[in-house]
Design goal:
Blueprint lengths: L12 H50 L9 E5 L5 E13 L2 E12 L7 E10 L2
Antiparallel strand pairs: 1-2, 2-3, 3-4
Length: 127
Amino acid sequence: MSLHCLRRKGFTLIEVLVGMVLLSSLAIAALQGFKAHKRQLQFAEKKILAVAELDRLLTQWSGMPGGLPYTGLGPIGPQRTWIWQAQIVDQRLVFGQPKLVVRIDILEANSTDAKRWASVELLRKLQ
């Protein structure tokens, strides 16, 4: 019987190892992509929650006799880890009338760099 007549019925060890390396690199790439997607999703959900909190505050303040604050800060959010902060950032003439630009921010309270999650600037009358 000659060697040419024998048929190969399987893969060599090298072929199996190369296939496993290729498959594992694809799996690692997919896991990294999933991890990045999950991180972006958490960021987006937090941003949406912050905008909803800011909208709730603006609605609440607009119905109060004093209206929106010019300056101040206070805790908000379900876990009280966020704060709102109002501050005067500019003064402008609008149709010849002097107005103050008041910025209201939603900030992360437990963060060292005070991450801003939502912000709005409003024109207010001079006090």
